[in-house]
Specification:
The complex is a heterodimer of chains A (about 280) and B (about 290).
Chain A lengths: L1 E12 L2 E12 L3 E5 L6 H9 L6 E6 L9 H4 L2 E4 L11 H9 L8 H8 L14 H13 L5 E5 L7 H16 L3 E6 L2 H7 L2 E6 L2 E6 L12 E7 L2 E7 L2 H10 L8 E3 L3 H11 L2
Parallel strand pairs in A: 3-7, 3-8, 5-6, 6-7
Antiparallel strand pairs in A: 1-2, 1-4, 8-9, 10-11, 10-12
Chain B lengths: L1 H4 L1 H12 L6 H18 L1 H21 L11 H32 L1 H6 L5 H31 L7 H26 L5 H18 L12 H9 L1 H13 L15 H22 L9
Helix pairs in contact in B: 3-7, 4-5, 4-7, 5-7, 5-8, 5-9, 5-11, 7-8, 8-11, 8-12, 10-11, 11-12
Classes of the chains: A alpha/beta (about 280), B mainly alpha (about 290).
Chain lengths: ~280, ~290
């Protein structure tokens, strides 16, 4: 059974179409990344799956439930990580986590959650005194304290410094290792590549590609670019058989220190994909 | 699928599956009440403005209108002390509730709670606990000011305190529920204070909170004021703190306790209906 199942999802705001016919199928335990430029429909899609927003058309099931009619029992099984909340400023970190834990039937212990997000040392700090990155980690703590089966992470690392982002990735991997299904939206391609089992690119409200980080957009069959310094200076060649090219070049006496083999990066693939749909 | 058509039933089934029942609304409401109170008292600006403003008004009024009425044993200070308790309850219950919900909508509190198994009733219960505690503290401060500075005689018979008790409870619930309903008219927390104070201040004057005897007001104004709770609250608190010899100064020539209770109960019902009809977890409206 799939954790998240979406068929023909549509949503318009007035005359503007935000999502025009999306299909998704995410099995239990998978980390799935939704990539796309601003305004592509990522947040709208996620908010519909969270039950925060109504859809205009399509069939949506999260843990077998229609989020638009999801009751308390269903909400106890999902976890939502907010991206811009400034609530609970006058409470301490531990008070906030304990309070939200009290709304769930089988919460994780507050100390365990704080350890998981790396905020153990700040348990008695007022929420308003946290740095931006710490505040976002608290949001993650509040999203997972209820032991959810599915976690929604909408652009969770926006504004993080590189070190905080790496720590956050460790946290997501730990959750995934626990068997939690994770739907992540992000602008950052290296983030999707580092975390996602599968990913989809969304542009102008439709999915333009879906695959694994290595196969997305025909990346696996896209070939390689081999470059070297020969008698005539730097030369490049596009090939589907880089090993053969290298063997030929080394037989011709080319200095291997000048040799590079490049495959199209996920970023190249992504930019091509969204470029075609602008 | 029947499951999607009946979310309550599905929720029950899911609960049974996980073996541990969901926390009850009362338990979650008490939890909400606790963090609401913690947050309020840690925000010093809110504490100062909520508590000290009505007390400051009482000090000013009682000092300016220090002259005695023609009525034996009746000082202006005594009249204003009684009426100002009604004002304190409206200011604290209605305004604090309205601003609080607008703030919760702005800062993500409501969005966060909407993603958890909490019920709207538990959220409201938490807010009502907060305003009940705040309003009780407010009334205590006002009474202390009135007794210490202006020699307000505190009633000694149990009957008057009983009146005080039910009046207080009904007033806080009616004003609190109306505050929840009014919060849906407020676009953001920044403008909430200004928007909510307009009906509050207007009703104080129309309802004779600052004018005694109320019969000095034009007849139509008393008729309008009689629709709303404030006039009845002020009248009720005068019945607690003023001598019975002042009854002829009231618009109806009597304390009218039964009518006061009925009007406040009616507003509790109207407030509940308005809450259910107008409350929104988020400010974004779906097309």
């Amino acid at each position: 059974m799939t954790a998240i199942e979406v068929r023909g999802l549509r949503k318009t705001y007035g005359s503007r179409t935000a999502v025009s016919g999306i299909d998704l199928s995410i099995p239990h335990g998978e980390v799935f990344a939704l990539l796309g430029p601003n305004g592509a429909g990522k947040t709208t899609t996620v908010e519909i799956l969270e039950g925060h927003r109504r859809r205009d058309a399509g069939d949506v099931r999260v843990l077998g439930q229609d989020p638009g009619a999801g009751g308390r029992g269903w909400r106890a099984r999902i976890g939502i990580v907010l991206q811009s909340a400034t609530d609970a400023a006058d409470l301490t970190v531990a008070e906030t986590v304990r309070h939200i834990a009290g709304l769930y039937p089988r919460p994780r212990p507050a100390a365990e959650v704080l350890e998981l997000v790396g905020l153990s040392g700040r348990a008695k700090t007022k929420v308003r005194a946290l740095s931006g990155g710490q505040r976002r980690r608290l949001d993650v703590a509040l999203g997972i304290v209820g032991r959810p089966e599915v976690v929604f992470l909408d652009e969770p690392t926006t504004g993080f410094d590189p070190q905080a982002r790496r720590q956050f990735w460790q946290l997501v991997r730990a959750l995934a290792a626990d068997g939690t299904t994770i739907l992540l939206t992000t602008h950052y391609l290296e983030e999707a590549e580092a975390l996602a089992d599968r990913l989809a690119v969304i542009a102008a409200g439709t999915l333009v590609a879906e695959g694994t980080p290595t196969t997305l957009g025909g990346r696996a069959g896209a070939g390689s670019t081999v470059s070297w310094v020969g008698p005539n200076g730097r030369e490049t060649e596009h090939t589907d058989d880089p090993a053969g090219t290298i063997a030929r070049l080394s037989a011709a006496g080319i200095d291997p220190a000048t040799l590079t083999v490049a495959r199209p990066s996920l970023e190249d693939t992504y930019l091509t994909l969204i470029g075609e749909h602008r | 699928m029947t499951a999607t058509e009946n979310p309550e039933r599905t929720a029950l089934m899911t609960t049974a599956d996980t073996a541990t029942p969901l926390p009850s609304t009362v338990r979650m409401g008490l939890g909400r009440g606790r963090v609401e109170i913690l947050q309020f008292f840690r925000d010093r600006t809110a504490v100062i403005f909520s508590f000290l403003f009505p007390a400051l008004l009482l000090l000013l009024f009682d000092t300016i209108f220090a002259d005695d009425y023609d009525h034996p044993g009746l000082s202006a200070a005594r009249v204003f002390s009684a009426s100002m308790i009604a004002y304190g309850i409206v200011a604290t219950s209605f305004t604090t509730m309205g601003i609080g919900i607008a703030t919760d909508r702005d800062d993500g509190t409501l969005k966060r709670l909407r993603g958890t198994p909490v019920t709207a009733t538990a959220y409201f219960l938490g807010k009502l606990i907060l305003i009940a505690v705040l309003t009780a503290a407010e009334v205590a401060v006002l009474l202390a000011v009135a007794v210490i500075f202006f020699d307000l005689p505190v009633p000694s018979d149990a009957g008057r305190w009983l009146t005080f008790g039910w009046l207080f409870v009904l007033s806080v619930i009616a004003c609190g529920l109306l505050g929840i309903a009014a919060s849906s008219l407020v676009r953001s927390a920044r403008t909430a204070g200004a928007v909510l104070n307009v009906p509050v201040v207007a009703l104080q004057f129309v309802s004779g909170v600052f004018v005694h005897p109320i019969t000095q007001l034009p007849g139509w104004m008393i008729t309008v004021a009689s629709i709303f709770p404030v006039k009845w609250m002020a009248q009720g608190f005068r019945s607690v703190f003023l001598p019975d010899s002042t009854v002829p100064l009231e618009a109806g020539g009597a304390w009218e306790h039964g009518r006061i209770a009925l009007v406040l109960l009616a507003w509790c019902v109207i407030g509940s209906v308005l809450c259910l009809m107008t409350f929104r977890w988020t400010s974004t409206r779906d097309a």
